[in-house]
Amino acid sequence: MKQQDLAIDLLRAFTTVAETGSFTTAGDILGRTQSAISQQIRKLEDIVGKNLFNRTSRAVVLSTDGELLLAHAYAIIARNDEALRRLTAPPIEGRLRLGVTEDFIPRQLPVLLSRFGKTHPQVQLELMTGLSTMLVEKLNAGDLDLVIAKRDAQPQAGRVIWREKLVWIASPEYKPDSNGTLPLVALPPPCSYRRVMLDVLRAAQRSWRITCTAHSIMGLQAAVVGNLGLSVLGRSFLGPDLVEAPASLGLPDMPDTEIAVFGEESARVELADCLVTFVTDALEGLTVNGRHLPMEIVGQICACKTLL
């Protein structure tokens, strides 16, 4: 049997009747007669094989099956309208100097930015990565147009777009010191990871020593993978070579970190909105029940959201 499709005009009639509780009012809104709306609803009911409304002489209310269809109908209409809006809008073009902190979804970001470039080929994206404080300084100096960085780089500014749990990271081969002192890998001050890590250890009255000072996130990761000590990063850094420190160490719980967008108010509005919307749409699909999705699934989500 051939699969039937749910036509947008039928769904639009259905949602309008559901909202107004009246075939006549729905017809007035959609510019159709009451009988035309009734025919559309009957056609939709024939397609799904269910009665979508309970009709009485006084009211038209959704049936149980109608309630089930309603959420899907809104979603389908929204995707249809957004697809048409995106496809008929003039192409966005121009140059955007973007700074992105090294600790923002490191495993996913290259794929997302590559997909953004393919989706918006007329946007010349100039990317700079680094530590959050340096990037915000570059933004304030006029060397960057937009920055995605940790909120604490400039706490009174920026719009938060991502929150992530900080975790203790270790090499899979890590073995604790016999004297109980924690060997730590840290970035130099004023790094917020260093500050938070040492603050929670002092509060927990745990002994520690800095065994390695790295000057980049990549260097910090390499030192931890090389088993020079423990450190603190966002959960998205975990992988085969970087694991969460074992619970047997009894390490204190870590807070969340916040990633914000800085510079939206002064960047070219259409370019900033385009990039930030793309990234935030993608971020919505990065986790399910707090768990990070595999990159290939994230790519599919981004592709779908880009088209829609």
From TrEMBL:
Lineage: superkingdom: Bacteria
Keyword check for Transcription regulation: yes
GO molecular function, one term: DNA binding
Record flagged with keyword Transcription regulation: yes
Transmembrane segments: none
HTH lysR-type domain segment(s): 8-63
UniProt keyword list: DNA-binding, Transcription, Transcription regulation
Pfam families: HTH_1, LysR_substrate
Gene3D superfamilies listed in its UniProt record: Periplasmic binding protein-like II, Winged helix-like DNA-binding domain superfamily/Winged helix DNA-binding domain
Family according to the record: Belongs to the LysR transcriptional regulatory family.
Designated name of the protein: LysR family transcriptional regulator
